[in-house]
Amino acid sequence: MALPLVLTAADLSHDRDFARALDAEDELAPWRAHFALPSRREHDIYFVGNSLGPMPHTARAMVNEELDDWSRLGVAGHMGSRRPWFSYHEQLRGPLARLVGAREEEVVAMNSLTANLHLLLTTFYRPSGKRTKLLIERGAFPSDTYAVRSHVSARGLCADTEVIEIAPRAGEWTIRDEDLDARIAQLGETLALAVLPGVQYRTGQAFDVARLTRVVHAVGAHCGWDLAHAAGNLALSLHDSGADFAVWCSYKYLNAGPGAVACAFVHERHLGDATLQRHAGWWGNDPKTRFKMEERFVPAHHADAWSLSNPPILSLAPLVASLAEFDGAQITRLRAKSVRMTALLEFLLRGTPDLEILTPTASHARGAQLSLLFAKNARSRFEAFLEAGLVCDYREPGIVRLAPAPLFNTFEEVWRAAAIVREACRSC
Q1: 8 A C-beta contact, residue 309 and residue 254
Q2: Has residue 79 been placed in a domain?
Q3: Between 53 and which of 49, 194, 206, 214 could a Cys-Cys bridge form, CB atoms 3.0 to 4.6 Å apart?
Q4: Which residues face 127 on adjacent strands?
């Protein structure tokens, strides 16, 4: 069936056969078989890839290859393994750059998200004179809030006055663009840095990275992004956006495993600038002189300059496997399928008693996630979803997050998930 990218109610149907027909025409359907989908029972629906993505089948073989090379080669594996460990992280640059719309020298896989955020805050939060404020959204993921407040305090400033939180209006759940713009303009020459979410983790609201970066830059401040719920979910264009930096994890939509290595982006205009303040480590040193073991740090002319230690090979291998799947599927095709999946899910859930969909309706303002707020019995309904085979997650106060991922979920699963939700709302 020939359907437009953005679906309206007139394009959709409550009929299960409609969902099956979408699956029959889905060119990405073969990718489902590339993943080990967690399942207590045969027909469980895994709609929680926004929290922990499933394992690509190839990840096991890639980790085993590194274990074999370690046992066979020992230290010689740094240069002599199938994928030499010394340069192992370099094979991630191309896939990461293609995934987030960056140049290869602008991206690096390293550390964890919060560690990367700390490293980049050291560089890009440089309060001076009147310019001391740091803007973040209210209700940000706690780790981000802890990180930014700790950096303000480390500069000898008061986090209670210098960290500015932008919140939704009273009685609303998502932040209006005009309110964010107005707050940035109001802060003006006092704003040093904004750290904003690509997708807000609780509500699923997506933000326009390029537009907001321009708004922040217009008042003379730096702009950084937490893309934990955006990387592998939205079609990003980080280089063109002009963002100063971004950080993201790889265990959610990127399916690299629990506690997987995170990633970072630093715009090319900052690369090679030896005057930037940073926490330095030997792996961030220019690789041409790294093994001279000199005392003076010479930053590499790419995002590696913010890395500290040699990369953890056994943790990187699953990310290599997963990024190969994204390269094959292509993020623009995945995003197009995701837009349709969330449109169908929203259509099927609209009008369900005691249920409010917090996530914006406009496709450009959301990713794969729909956040459902229940007026009553939220926890018991969530437990009913799990019992019926809908694997999702719960966030206070009374929010259930459903995230159909286009790499491995189906339109029929969307139909079945909506049926489970509606039935639980009737019976609980």
Answers
A1: no
A2: yes
A3: 49
A4: none
pLDDT digits (tens, 9 = 90+) for 83-137: 999 999 999 999 999 999 999 999 999 999 999 999 999 999 999 999 999 999 9
43 falls within a domain: no
The per-residue b/e assignment along 92-114, b for 16 or more CB within 10 angstroms, e otherwise, is: bbebbbbbbbbbbbbbbbbbbbb
Rg (C-alpha) for the chain, rounded Å, is 22
**Interatomic CA distance for residues 259 and 251, integer angstroms:** 7
CATH number (domain holding residue 346): 3.90.1150.10
Residue 310 corresponds to which tokens in the numbers above?
């040699």
Cβ-proximal residues to 197 (8 Å cutoff; 6+ apart), any chain: 137, 140, 141, 207, 225, 226, 227, 228, 229, 230
Pick from 137, 134, 138: nearest CA to 150: 134
Q: Rounded to a whole number, what is the largest CA-CA distance in the chain?
A: 70
Asked if 236 contacts 101 with a C-beta cutoff of 8 angstroms, the reply is yes
Asked if 117 and 80 sit in the same domain, the reply is yes
| For helices 331-349 and 16-24, angle between their N-to-C axes, nearest 10 degrees | 180
pLDDT in tens, 251-292: 999 999 999 999 999 999 999 788 899 999 988 888 888 888
pTM comes to 0.95
